[in-house]
Amino acid sequence: MTAVPLKPRSESRAKPSRVRLQKGEASSAIAVHALLIVFAIVAILPILVVVMNSFKTTMGIFGAPFAVPGADTFNLDGYKNVFTRGNFAANYLNSIIVTVATIVATIVLATAAAWALVEYKVRISPLLTGFFILGIMLPIRLGTVPIIKMMVATHLIDTLLALVLVYTAMQLPLAIALMMTYFRSVPGELKEAARMDGASEFQVLGIALPLVRPGLAAVASITMLPVWNDLWFPLILAPSKANQTVTLGVQQFVGQFQSDYPALLAALTLGALPLIVLFTVFSRQFIQGLSAGYGK
Amino acid sequence: MIRTGTRYRLLALFVLPALLVYVGFSVYPLLSSVALSFFDTADGGSVFTGFGNYVYLFTDPYVSERFWNALRNSVLFFGIHLVVELPIGLLMAALLTSNSIRRSRGVYRTLLFIPATLSVVIVGFLWRLIINPLWGLISFPLLGDPSTALPTISLMSVWQYIGIPMIFLFTALIAIPDDILEASRIDGARAWSTFWQIKFPLILPQFGLISILTYIWTFNGFDIVYALNGSAPGPNYSTDILGTMFYRTFFGSSGQVADTDLGATIASVVFFIILVTTAAYFVVLQRRLKTYEL
Amino acid sequence: MRSKLAPLAALTVAAVGLALAGCSTGGGSGDGADVTTITFGNWRVEDASLWEENVIPAFEKAHPDIKVTYQPTGTDDYNAAIQSQIESGTGPDVMMCRPFDVNRAWIKDGYFDDLSGLDGIDGFTDTALAAWQGDDGDPYCVPIASVLAGFYYNKAIFSELGLKVPTTMAEFTDVLKAIKDDGKYTPLALGSADGWQLSYNVLDSLGPNYWQGEDGRLGLIDGTKKLTDPEFVDAFQAVSDLKSYMPDGFESLTYEDQMQLFTLGKAAIMPDGSWDVTAASATGLDVGIFAPPVQKAGDQRYLQEMPDQGVGLNADSKNKDAAKVFLSWLASSDFQSIYVDKVPGFFSMGSEPVEYTNALAQEFADLKTDALLTPRLQLDRLSAGTPPLDDDTWAVLQTVLNDGVSAEDATTTLQTNLDSWYTPAS
């Protein structure tokens, strides 16, 4: 697909040539910071509005939506309602299981397929590659009814496994396309040297894998978001209370408490929080992965 | 070199698991739904009609008007992503690679990406609150005016997803080998011209790829419009995109009888449009981008 | 080191996850030997706790061998979910039926069992059953509840401004004007972002007084009347005239926004359905209800009564005997009195009189006295094709309020679109 071989360098590697900041660099640093701060505010402030209002009374929310909760507007009823009525612990667990399992399945299958498509060139390789890439364009929602029929036939309906299978199928094309760009940039000498030493093809792949770590991180990130946030397939394939995911739980809760704004905002906050925390905690490794060098 | 026969066997071994899952849970269900577009299901029976549904979609005055309207809106939806999300995402990525902010790079990156982790339920809700004419920041009814409703929704979507092109382009930018950049630094090239003359051409293939992905994602778009305006998105269908039209037709609504055949027809046409455009892109453009290959 | 362990940890979690998923496959069916569990699919997410805590326990007490699972899906996704589930054989045992055209399509597709002969179904009048009859005239769903539409008003604002509840359109306009001139409150809590409620709570509420309820509605169906006739144009004009009393920026105000506006005491009057009696009085406001005003004093009064929820039996259900016991119970006055008491704002469709403990629900019920009842204009027959009159009306009403399209042009558009597919059944 893409052309430029990615030859990432280590982000954190200290530059030998690094000298003290010069005058021009200092002023450009201020400009860069200023711009990024503006972007960050635009990105974060709206979310803080929701979080903040979840701690207020209805009167407080609509009287002054952008004010910080004060003595007369502070109120935790929303959270109380969510914890007594909602089913958040179970919902979180379901979402985490589905998301992690999908990420692992996608990475394993996509890595193997991408490796083979890059490595074992035969006449049908380009055709197969194209066939996978077509999948990026497919609106999988259209296939809903046949998907349910299959899940019923295999007794997978209303299980988390059904979700994992559909999501993996949905995410594979993009994951394969991405992994292929990373595998293409693995130096050929490395693989040939391994083969000369009598390594099996699995071992050669094992040698190449550390070099495509950034790709694995990229696939994980791109897989995680749509899976965690999907509403449709949880509703259709695993709707029972025991299998509800967070996004579905929040949506049902929103439906049930349409006019109870504190509860609603509390539910929205709790629905969003885990992924934000997860992302914040892991983003270092995550993007270091994306940008880390070839086995450096 | 591995022998051809062995290569076939290895290819099969490694590709087959992915192929089975992909065909079983994506390709096959979609194909069997697409097949519906060649049938007319009425009163319990199902009759093969060839391209009858397609003819109906493009000739019926009401249905075709809805379709062209949704197509126009999808083009606009994509256009706004193209001219707002990608340039700003590129700017963010470029700023993040700046050496002068090394220490705080991680913090910015995380903050800027957070909206992409939210579900549309939250995104729709929080922006509705912020731009609500009664208690929000803007008294103009942005979502109520047909000329501003779709641009407003598009910008909400841009706000949410801008982190994706940002990260994508960021990783491409930092992947540029040091020696190239060192060379240009010795030349005394300024940051601005270094970026446009050296860095940008090098990441052009990635920029092209994220553009075409954005195109595919926006043409398959559905969630944000549905979350904000339901399946008959108003005012007067001014925010109806192909995804919502498909959903409404395929599944019906509280007061509208589902027409699965026509729904499948719409989805097939959309797929065809995306396929042709994407193929054209790869044949015409991506090939030229390869001239910059290292 | 960490990076080497990470995939391992992830794999373990995934393996545990898959194992858990596998376990849950077998669940659900393994209850006690003589207890049958049936699922009840519906779109009333809002009423989940009312059903689960009040209504279903009453049934289970009387029928200890049957358990009922309340399975709600938001109303926007309900049709899609039910159709997907039924088509693939995973539908709930009993499920709520949409009124009129959608349900007719579902009956045709074989979703339901015919309920002729079900215990208790004879207790309903033909009018009550009409919304869920098949083309064969048989009943397919047990009528559960109807809803009414009217105007909520803030009593404190009315007494502060010395206003009287209007009974004619002229008085209605005077009241709105007085509130607007006073300037302290928004006269009408009404936004046009949600097209459906312009249609259901405004046009179909004020309108029947213009088109004379069933006369006009059935006239459209049998083709003796057109939407371009003066009585319909006048009704659209009446909606259009409300525009100057709506809040600033009404074009993007949603149904939820207007409820907030009203319950926070910032608006005097709100057109809405009876299902919102709990929400409208939730903040402790002193709220009253008045009927859609008539054109001239002394005119016959009409009121929208919409069959809202029926419950049908999934033709593929594996627990039909238990499901029928539940359906019969839903048809009994035992159920009806519990239901209207615990889920206020919905009205029994049975023939036996029931009492309403909720004061606002009683006020709504009182509006029926002396009024001729009629369902919403668009849903019977006229929404079975493309474009459905229902959706079309939503969009056209938005253009009337937002873009100033005239009542004449609006009704002409609707009639033209309707003529493109509908042939009156004479």
Give the SSE map:
The complex is a heterotrimer of chains A (296), B (294) and C (426).
Chain A: H1 23-53, H2 58-63, H3 77-85, H4 88-119, H5 125-134, H6 144-153, H7 160-184, H8 188-196, H9 201-208, H10 213-229, H11 232-237, H12 246-256, H13 261-291
Helix pairs in contact in A: 3-13, 4-7, 4-10, 4-12, 5-7, 7-10, 8-9, 10-13, 12-13
Chain B: H1 4-34, E1 39-42, E2 45-48, H2 52-59, H3 61-97, H4 105-113, H5 120-130, H6 146-161, H7 163-174, H8 178-186, H9 191-219, H10 223-229, H11 242-251, H12 260-289
Antiparallel strand pairs in B: 1-2
Chain C: H1 2-26, E1 36-42, H2 48-62, E2 66-72, H3 75-87, E3 94-97, H4 101-108, H5 126-130, E4 141-154, H6 155-160, H7 169-182, E5 186-188, H8 195-206, H9 208-211, H10 214-222, H11 230-241, H12 255-263, E6 267-273, H13 277-280, E7 287-290, E8 301-313, H14 320-330, H15 333-342, H16 359-366, E9 371-374, H17 389-403, H18 407-419
Parallel strand pairs in C: 1-2, 1-3, 5-6, 8-9
Antiparallel strand pairs in C: 3-8, 4-6, 4-7, 4-8
Helix pairs in contact in C: 2-15, 8-11, 8-17, 11-18, 17-18
Low-confidence stretches of chain B: none
> What are the segments of chain C in which pLDDT stays under 50 over at least 5 consecutive residues?
1-32
Write out the CATH superfamily name of the largest domain in chain C.
Answer: Periplasmic binding protein-like II
H-E order of chain C = HEHEHEHHEHHEHHHHHEHEEHHHEHH
Binned, the helix content of chain B reads: over 70%
The largest contact between protein chains, plus residue counts on each side, is: A-B, 99 and 100 residues
Number of strands of chain C: 9
Radius of gyration of chain C: 24 Å
